[in-house]
Amino acid sequence: MPAEPWNTFHAGDNLDVLPRLAPGSVDLVYTDPPYNTGNDFVYADRFRDHAAWTAMMRPRLVAMREVLAPHGAVFVSIDDNEVAHLRLLMDEVFGETNFLAQIVVNLNPKGRQLGRGFATSHEYVLAYARHLPSCVVEGSSTEAVDEADFPLTSADGRRFRYLPLRNTNKKFNPVTAPTLHFELYGDPVTGRVATTPFDGGRPLTPVFGDGRPAVWRWSRPLVDERPDDLECRVIRGRSGERVDIFQRDWLEREGGRRKKLRTIWLAEEIGSTDTAVAELKALVGHVFESPKPTGLVRRILSTVPDDAVVLDPFAGSGTTGHAVALANAADGGTRRCISINSAEPTREGSNAHLAGLATVADITRARLAAVAEQLGGGLEVVLESPDIR
Ligand SMILES: C[S@@+](CC[C@H](N)C(=O)[O-])C[C@H]1O[C@@H](n2cnc3c(N)ncnc32)[C@H](O)[C@@H]1O
């Protein structure tokens, strides 16, 4: 039974709305607060100074923490103007020990050409767990797997690569991991590997490149269990030919293959501000200045289970809700997204205003309605804040 609606929108100040959500009911917060750039965007993105910005953010981060489940996490977009302040503020609210990552997001690949100095081409996402030991966030994704890393094809058509069975990390050796130093038998002609002697099998022990004793990555019982995933081969190294044992590491494996996510996310992987503007334009129009690309949010979604309850308390043009619907449509997931945005008036003469969208909340709602129309999943709108009457 799919959890519908996929999207819920609350128009109002998030400080009023957040306390109305059930404590512990949210798995993931992704949000993109005003950046304090001093630019005149559709919404008021200007604070007198860092202290004013921090004072605005502190109670809101506390309120986000309240609604997070113990296994949940929060991801916040931020640029150079406030990253240092936000990092300290999040240390204060969530605790330094719950720090997950400071990710560099390359949203402007050409670089900012205005003003003096460097052509800034990135901003950040700061990620903190509610409680690190129970956090469900996996710093890995199925999307990050590159098929080109698996260049070989087996007789039955499955893609794979060879990995040395020998542990190449010097920290692991017969002293630190004695149970992983044992003799295996391998036949480089047939490829067969076993823990006990057989005809044609020669004894092999793991050694480092310099000849010192090493250890295997697999225990003896694991070799007995999966001998067909191992292969004895002759390889040509710097010091001539040698016989060694390799694991056949399959591209497809049960439960899906995951790859650790690096902390630099490129525009070619997740999209850019330009692609984000195009995404919004296709649904509603060019009615918001700096939306985030759905690819950024989808990558964050890929680190949590596909039934996550997601919250974006500074929803802007509704990118997070759009990304949730795209992810559900793509993988059959049952994620739900709660978006909040205040009903700040849009600037007179702006595209949004000319399009009849009098407030930023109108923009959020218009996009989420268009998303429901296009992808399904429905939209529930909650108008509960006095500032929209
Ligand atoms: C940087 S924008 C978010 C953009 C969004 N990530 C997107 O892709 O469109 C920040 C948003 O927060 C909203 N906002 C600012 N203060 C707010 C508050 N106290 N409560 C709710 N929304 C607020 C602004 O109206 C603005 O739309």
List keywords for this structure.
binds S-adenosylmethionine, alpha/beta, 25% helix, Rossmann fold, 389 residues, 10 helices, 4-stranded antiparallel beta sheet
Architecture blueprint of SSEs:
Elements (H helix, E strand, L loop, with lengths): L6 E5 L2 H4 L8 E6 L18 H18 E11 L4 H12 L4 E7 L17 E7 L10 E2 L10 E2 L5 E6 L19 E3 L6 E2 L7 E3 L15 H6 L4 E8 L2 E11 L8 E2 L3 E2 L1 H4 L2 H11 L10 H8 L7 E4 L6 H13 L4 E6 L9 H4 L5 H16 L3 E5 L6
Parallel strand pairs: 1-17, 1-18, 2-3, 2-16, 4-15, 16-17
Antiparallel strand pairs: 3-5, 4-5, 6-14, 7-8, 8-13, 9-10, 9-11, 12-13
EC number: 2.1.1.-
Pfam families: N6_N4_Mtase
InterPro entries: DNA_methylase_N4/N6, DNA_methylase_N6_adenine_CS, RM_Methyltransferase, SAM-dependent_MTases_sf
What structural category do the secondary elements indicate? alpha/beta
State the CATH class of the largest domain.
Alpha Beta
Given the C-alpha coordinates, what overall shape results? elongated
Reported CATH architecture of the largest domain: 3-Layer(aba) Sandwich
Low-confidence stretches: none
Total number of domains: 2
Mean pLDDT equals 92
State the CATH topology of the largest domain.
Rossmann fold
Largest sheet: 9 strands, mixed
Hetero groups: S-adenosylmethionine
Strand order of the largest sheet: 15-4-5-3-2-16-17-1-18
Q: Termini, distance in Å?
A: 36 Å
Please tell me how large the radius of gyration is: 26 Å
Annotated CATH homologous superfamily of the largest domain: Vaccinia Virus protein VP39
Number of strands: 18
The secondary-structure element order is EHEHEHEEEEEEEEHEEEEHHHEHEHHE
Separate helix tally = 10
Share of residues in strands: 15-25%
The portion of residues assigned to helices is 10-25%
